[in-house]
């Protein structure tokens, strides 16, 4: 997957997670404009700032607890807008338990990235899971300047099962 398309998917997931109004078409259009005008850097050429390093460590800790269905600290870190997406801690817990039942534990860490945009620091983790190893999911967490989780979402990044192609030779 080229970096522009990947950036489009990641920015789209962050836009959709943080957007509380508007249509899907408007979200896609706005995200497409952002992705085509943004310069995409390869992970090897990007040096993390101190803020990004701190957020990466914090996000990894919260994600470890999320995977273990220990959601209290993550829930406490959510802003009211993010909490409203799930209703209450019981609703968020049910959401997570459903994910565990459907996909199992993380199987492969494909990539992780941190970046800063519009005053927030984002952590994106791309991974596959035991029950669907061909699907790469992107978990995105945005942190505001106070360290609160101001954006949270999981989106399909790529389905690798489509990568298999048969060639018929004469």
Description:
- With 170 residues, the chain is of the alpha+beta class.
- Helices cover 45% and strands 26% of the residues.
- The protein is built from six helices and four strands, in the order H-H-H-H-H-H-E-E-E-E.
- The chain has helices at residues 3-18, 24-37, 50-67, 72-77, 80-86, 89-103, and strands at 106-117, 120-129, 132-143, 149-159.
- Strand 2 (120-129) and strand 3 form a beta hairpin.
- Helix 1 (3-18) crosses helix 2 (24-37).
- It is globular and about 65 Å long.
- The relative contact order is 0.16.
Break the fold down into its secondary structure elements and pairings.
Elements: H1 3-18, H2 24-37, H3 50-67, H4 72-77, H5 80-86, H6 89-103, E1 106-117, E2 120-129, E3 132-143, E4 149-159
Q: Could you list some keywords that capture this structure?
A:
170 residues, 6 helices, alpha+beta, 4-stranded antiparallel sheet, 45% helix, disordered N terminus
Query: Could you give the order of strands across the largest sheet?
Result: 1-2-3-4
Largest sheet: 4 strands, antiparallel
Helix and strand content put the structural class at alpha+beta
Unreliable sequence segments: 1-42
Count every beta strand, where a strand is a DSSP E run of 2 or more residues.
Answer: 4
Distance between the termini: 30 Å
Strand residues, percent:
25-35%
Q: Assign an overall shape.
A: globular
State the helical fraction: 40-55%
Spell the H/E element sequence.
HHHHHHEEEE
Radius of gyration: 17 Å
How many individual helices? 6
Please, what is the average pLDDT? Answer: 78
């Amino acid at each position: 997957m080229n970096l522009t398309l990947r950036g489009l998917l990641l920015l789209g997931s962050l836009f959709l997670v943080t957007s509380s109004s508007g249509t899907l078409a408007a979200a896609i259009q706005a995200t497409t404009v952002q992705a085509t005008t943004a310069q995409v850097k390869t992970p090897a050429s990007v040096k993390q700032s101190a803020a990004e390093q701190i957020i990466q460590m914090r996000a990894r800790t919260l994600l470890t607890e999320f995977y273990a269905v220990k959601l209290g600290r993550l829930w406490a870190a959510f802003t009211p807008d993010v909490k409203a997406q799930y209703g209450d801690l019981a609703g968020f817990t049910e959401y997570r338990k459903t994910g565990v039942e459907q996909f199992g534990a993380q199987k492969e860490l494909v990539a992780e990235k941190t970046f800063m945009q519009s005053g927030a620091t984002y952590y994106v983790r791309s991974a596959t899971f035991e029950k669907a190893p061909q699907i790469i999911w992107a978990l995105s967490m945005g942190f505001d300047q106070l360290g609160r989780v101001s954006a949270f979402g999981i989106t399909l990044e790529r389905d690798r099962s489509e990568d298999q192609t048969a060639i018929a030779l004469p």
